[in-house]
Amino acid sequence: MLDFSFDINDVIMIALMVCALLISIIGHEIMHGLVAFYYGDTSAKDAGRLSINPIKHIDLVGSIILPGILLATQAPFLFGWAKPVPVNITQIISRHGYGAGVGVAIAGVSYNIALALFSSLLLFSGLIDIKNSIFGLFFASFLVFLIKYNVILFVFNLFPIPPLDGSRVLAFASLKLGAVGVAKALGKIEPYGLIILMFILFVPYLSNILFFPAKILLEFLLPY
User: Fold this and answer.
1) CB-based burial, 59-79: b 16+ in 10 Å, e otherwise
2) Which own/partner contact pairs does 153-156 have at CB distance under 8 Å and 24+ positions apart?
3) 167: phi then psi, degrees, rounded to nearest 5
4) Phi and psi of 46, rounded to 5°?
5) How many Cβ atoms from other residues are within 10 Å of residue 196's Cβ?
6) Which residues are catalytic, by number?
7) Is the dihedral of CA 199, 202, 206, 212 positive or negative?
8) Shortest CA distance to 199 belongs to which of 151, 158, 159?
9) Which of 90, 131, 137, 176 could cross-link 98 (Cys pair, CB 3.0–4.6 Å)?
10) Separation of alpha carbons 202 and 79, rounded Å
11) Side-chain-facing half-sphere of 6: CA atoms under 13 Å
């Protein structure tokens, strides 16, 4: 039987976790749109998806249902995603080449790792009083959540498995270098990408191997 009893500190912590997750996943998507806009694609801007208003980015399953289930079942982690921003990648590549495609594809994970690094620097800067201030304690917890979520999103999205960003980066980089076969191979496995991802995530041995870089990064950014 599930225990749904929470005190005020639990409620605050859950709110901080949700806020940190939304900042992480929404910022990831906005960055794709901003880089696409830099290359002349106004698709995201025209759809109102460059806004920081979370309502415009929330995905029913990835932003509400899945995180809600994980919270209700008291899972040891929180995960989710926002609605992908619209990007006319064909137009961008036709105008600016495959390098621009790599730039758009890698924008989201670049945001995630930058936010994780910044949060770690702030957390260990000595500016936050966690011993004598309840606000400082909660803010430090918020930074820890930001570090964890952004490191996981960074590593996860770099898996070279469609439809993740890592597969787009690999495909566009391969095409730029003339390795067309790599891009074709990724295209062939794309219909099965989600199945492959689910298999990896739910097989502990495989997931432990693939998330090992995240463990190393977290040990560096959260040494204690």
Assistant:
1) beebbeebbeebeeeeeeebb
2) 153/24, 153/25, 153/28, 153/108, 153/109, 153/112, 154/109, 154/112, 154/113, 154/116, 154/214, 154/217, 155/210, 155/211, 155/213, 155/214, 155/217, 156/211, 156/214
3) -70, -35
4) -65, -30
5) 14
6) 29
7) positive
8) 159
9) 176
10) 14
11) 13
Exposed / middle / buried, residue 161 (Cβ in 10 Å: 0-12, 13-18, 19+)? buried
Burial of 38 (0-12, 13-18, 19+ CB in 10 A): middle
Token couple for 183: 């891009």
User: How high is the pLDDT of residue 74?
Assistant: 66
Tokens of 121: 């620097």
User: Within 13 Å and on the Cβ side, how many CA atoms surround 90?
Assistant: 0
Cα 19 from Cα 119, distance rounded (Å)? 14
How many beta carbons lie within 10 A of that of residue 18, not counting itself? 18
Residue 76 preceded by cis peptide, ω within 30:
no
Instruction: List the beta bridge partners of residue 82.
Output: 58
User: Rounded to an integer, what distance in angstroms lies between the CA atom of residue 143 and that of residue 122?
Assistant: 8
For 70-103, the pLDDT digits (tens) are 777 766 566 777 888 999 999 999 999 999 999 9
- The better pLDDT of the pair 171, 136 is held by 171
Instruction: Please provide the size of the chain in residues.
Output: 224
* pLDDT of residue 2 exceeding 50: no
Task: Tell which wins on pLDDT, 185 or 80.
Answer: 185
Enumerate residues 6+ apart whose C-beta is below 8 A from 162.
Answer: 168, 186, 187, 189, 190, 193
